[in-house]
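Title: Prediction job returns without error message
Component: structure pipeline
Severity: low
Priority: P3
Assignee: unassigned

Description:
Job completed but the reporter wants confirmation the result is attached to the right record. Sequence as submitted:
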Amino acid sequence: MRTVCFSDSKKDRLNNHLSPYEYLQMRHRCVSVALHRQDNEKAANQEWRFANMVYPEFSPTASLRAASNETHNGVWAIPESLAQRYCEFLDPVILRRSVATQTANASSICNFGKAKGRTYDHVLIYPVADMASWLQDASTDLKPQTRSKLYVAITRARFSAGFVVADNKINELPDTLSVWKP
């Protein structure tokens, strides 16, 4: 059984030459983070691998959405000291655990739970401690609710997802995250 993401189910089914039976046989777990130019295949594959790492026990998700011309794509580690500059550069939607979380100034700030079901071009995620540990080591065990919120946060992004990381932890991150530099 394949898992796919649809932006418009009937349109995507027809564009990808799926019969109604094939369409019904698919699981529809939607991840919209990997919309990229076709010449940026390496970054797109990196993003899908990253999003799929949250739930490794499930079959990998793939996107049937069209490629985009967006220039800033991927999953990024944003040093905490550069978070405000990143917001000025992209105007991402900031995703956080609660209103008590200190964030950079942005035009839109949303809690993880309120973001569910929405899609944004770019998101900047302020991870809780367990999520930050998972970013350093994906084998870190996450509580089910934390894992779910992490997955929701990552998959809200249409083009890029950034994680705010403490400046002193930036060098401890694996290669799955590129460090953003202005």
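Comment from assignee: result matches the submitted record. The CA atoms of residues 88 and 106 lie 8 Å apart.
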